[in-house]
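Internal QA ticket QA-208
Title: Verify multi-chain structure generation after dependency bump
Assignee: T.L.

Test input:
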Amino acid sequence: MIRRMLAVAVKELLQLRRDRRTMLALLAMPVVLLLIYGFALSFDVRDIRLAVVDQSRTRASREVVEAFLKSGYFVRIADLDEPRPLDGLFDRGTAQAALVIPAGFGADVAGRRLTTLQFVLDGSDSQTASTVLGYARQIVVSESSRLYEVKLRPPVVARPLVWYNPDLDSTIFLVPGLVAFILMVSSVIATALAVVREKERGTMESLRATPLVALELLVGKTLPYLLVASVAATGSLTLAWGLFDVPIRGSIVWLALITVLFLAGGLGWGMFLSSLADTQQVAFQLGLLSSMLPTLLLSGFIFPISSMPRALQLISHIVPARYFISALREIVLKGVGPEVWWNDALALVAFGAVVLVLATVQTVRSL
Amino acid sequence: MRTLLNILVKELLQLRRDPRILPILFVAPVVQLTILGYAATTDLRRVELAVCDLDRTSASRDLVRRFIDSSYFRLVASLDDQRAIDRWLDSGRARIALTIPAGFAAVREAGGSAEVQLVADGSDAMTGTLGLSYAYGVIQQVAGTDGLRLPIELRPKVLYNPDLISRNFMVPGVLAMILMIMTMMLSSMALVRETELGTMEQLLVTPLSPGAIIVGKLVPYAMVGTVEILTALPVVLFWFDVPLRGSLAVLALLTAPFMLCTLGLGLLVSTLSSTQQQAMMISTFVFMLPQIYLSGFVFPIQNMPKAFQVVTYAVPLRYYVQVLRGVFLKGVGLEVLWPQGLAMLGLGIAILTLARIRFRQRIG
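Actual output:
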């Protein structure tokens, strides 16, 4: 049985080697996509376009403005005397935030009276807005204690500690997800075309005449793709580590293991689609739709699963990338071992087993 | 004109008979609305919180209760030992851990500043950042009720989307997605199909000019796209309660140049591919995904490296995203959005000219 599987694998590999274009696409596409998107994706908020309306024009007010600019989060795009032109600046999107310092500010600070600052911001990008508001609050707290020369003693203070990614750099968090996304799409599409091609060309008939059983055919056909996809995965992960500074804190062996499990699942899903479809075109469309959208949206890659409605959270359990991304971040960023991510690994094995059974049943039916 | 109409009718008839087109027509908008309305949310809710209360007083329990009442946090573990935090964060079962040290209540009663520790999981930077800022908010609230006031009070005023609901922007994005799928992907596939089946030759020997063929093949998809938008719009406005502050007329007017761009891209894709499969692949990977990533729709443009920022000026969706934000949330009109309209018009004409040249080379 193993011999026959290997025979199919060798045949498929030879065929793949001759199809230069496919081979190149499978090997190069993940790396190229990672290169392009890795640079473009970031949630880190910086260079916020700030309009300043300083109606006080005192030393205190200038110091507050200075504190905003020196924080590194803001760039000043306008210096106004009155708040009226702000509407236009916000409507055009020229300004994202505005700091309005009322006329009495300097006098209030000098007289040690309570005073106010107004901070206007564009909420249409809610994610950026809430981050910016947090920055502004921090600056005002530190300016309060500086200008009033008081040591603020709030009843409760929080000492924050961020683990695994102390600067909360979003690239480090997004790149592992991006690797998963790219590998999922390319591995599903790779095999989605494999069986259906034989059907289209009529060579399925000749395979049927051989003593091969469905399982041997499927596993044999998947093996070469697993090899190619593993090479592509190694390339992508090396790039993530070398170029995007994603630290690899855990063991390479575990990383390899979980990656192979994930690839096997993706390739198996492609095989199942391939046995389902009658034409390469249908197989391709099914592969693209079923791998791209769920991996992009329901895997925790960008959008946190815990914030989704229950029904979508349930659906996310059948998305293999969910487990892979979680395990990947755990191995790469947290450096933990299988005692933590064993259930993710188990889920990937289960996914692989289910798709293999589905694909075998479907192939037997079509044979 | 008559011949143009004929080819238009032919295309619509063909569209109606294609069994595979129906799922795309009906499933795609529904899926996108669900996803952008429910899944693509960057508003954090129910962040998994582990609490290690070493104080065990009514004051410490009150603080914990405030975290949970805020609805941003969900208590997943109450720990007795601070070292257990490691395990909960390592496994990702908790994203934020709050430690209240022993003596918390005593320090507060003595008028001192009691310290609590917050540990955030930075491997999910989004949840980490927002979770921490929510936690500060809760703690500040506690500080406020204890009678402390900062000498300088920051009065935030959030324009356009006061509750900072990400859905308000994500959901109108469906309109852009539908337009891209209908006018770019499907139209390119339809054009390539004629080449694949060899019927393009037949069309070319008819008295129709290549321009008429192009228009006749593209316009039906623009029509279908428009109809779909009109069906999706009520769902956006009434089911998801997205405010529409500007005028529909402005939206319609500025959608036209965007469609010009996407139709042009559809034609361009068809000249770059010889099979429908290639057309689908090229339109998805070369044109659609990069446009989504580089439009500022999910990832802010100002965070990208300078070179990428320059590239975004050539992305039609960039301008359309600004139009959608402007019309839906800001309620502005042409007096503000004319540069976007002009940019899309310019890009559209450039793309169409390029596509037209390639199309002519191909058939010639």
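Spot checks passed. Chain B has two domains: 2-40+165-363, 47-145.
Status: verified.
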